[in-house]
């Protein structure tokens, strides 16, 4: 008769010599399973914190970009210190209906909301572009457009490089540029 008591089986396994292949393989499996559970648990628990940190980092980059543009800090203080934002449907060139800044990430996770680019259209070497983009803008006290912040992307060596370009109110003058995401090797290039 076979003893199916797990405590007895555990004791028999521990009683094996350390050179035993069975004991070595079981312990290696046990350690790797415990480590996998710990890493998976940490990933799930830390995901909201990482998302919040990425959003805070992007906001800080936007603030730094705007602070470096002459006269924009004073304009922001007049306009309650915040930029307005709108989601643009890039296919139609109009404000998107049904997509908000809060739902943009979900919309962009759907592959149907991406357009494949022909080699003639693909100047940045990305292969595709999103159908929606979040644009920030600032209007002066007179209602005139003072600043527009547009997302741009290009291909890098290790992956895409995302940035925000700041255009003056005439929409022809570049006021600044901030890199918001990249996967290049730090310190090279």
Protein architecture, described:
It is built from four helices and eight strands. It is α+β, with helices and mostly antiparallel strands. Strands 2-1-5-6-7-8 form a six-stranded antiparallel sheet. A two-stranded antiparallel ribbon has the order 3-4. A hairpin with a 4-residue loop joins strand 6 (145-155) and strand 7 (160-168). The chain starts with 5 loop residues before the first helix and ends in an 8-residue tail after the last strand. The model has no long low-confidence stretch (mean pLDDT 84).
Question: Could you give the topology of this structure?
Answer:
Blueprint lengths: L5 H10 L5 H47 L4 H7 L5 E6 L4 E2 L8 H6 L4 E3 L11 E3 L1 E8 L5 E11 L4 E9 L5 E8 L8
Antiparallel strand pairs: 1-2, 1-5, 3-4, 5-6, 6-7, 7-8
Are there runs of 5+ residues with pLDDT below 50, and where? none
Determine the fraction of residues in helical runs and give it as a percent range.
25-40%
Instruction: From the alpha carbons, calculate the radius of gyration and give it in angstroms.
Output: 26 Å
**H and E order:** HHHEEHEEEEEE
* Spatial order of strands in the largest sheet: 2-1-5-6-7-8
Q: Give the rounded overall mean pLDDT.
A: 84
What separation lies between the terminal Cα atoms? 70 Å
Characteristic key phrases:
alpha+beta; six-stranded antiparallel β-sheet; elongated; 4 helices; 26% strand; 189 residues
Task: Summarize, please.
By secondary structure, this protein is an alpha+beta fold. The protein has helices at residues 6-15, 21-67, 72-78, 104-109, and strands spanning 84-89, 94-95, 114-116, 128-130, 132-139, 145-155, 160-168, 174-181.
């Amino acid at each position: 008769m076979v003893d199916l008591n797990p405590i007895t089986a555990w004791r028999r396994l521990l009683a094996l010599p350390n050179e035993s292949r069975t004991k070595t393989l079981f312990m290696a499996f046990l350690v790797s399973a415990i480590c996998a559970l710990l890493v998976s648990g940490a990933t799930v628990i830390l995901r909201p914190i990482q998302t919040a940190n990425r959003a805070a980092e992007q906001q800080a980059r936007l603030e730094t970009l705007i602070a470096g543009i002459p006269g924009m800090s004073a304009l922001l203080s007049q306009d309650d210190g915040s930029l307005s934002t709108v989601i643009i449907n890039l296919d139609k060139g109009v404000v998107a209906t049904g997509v908000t800044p809060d739902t943009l990430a979900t919309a962009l996770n759907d592959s149907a909301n991406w357009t494949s680019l022909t080699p003639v259209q693909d100047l940045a070497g990305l292969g595709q572009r999103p159908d929606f983009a979040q644009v920030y803008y600032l209007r002066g006290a007179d209602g005139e457009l003072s600043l527009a912040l547009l997302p741009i992307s290009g291909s890098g060596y290790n992956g895409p490089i995302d940035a925000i370009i700041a255009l003056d109110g005439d929409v022809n003058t570049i006021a600044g540029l901030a890199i918001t995401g990249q996967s290049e090797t730090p310190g090279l290039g």
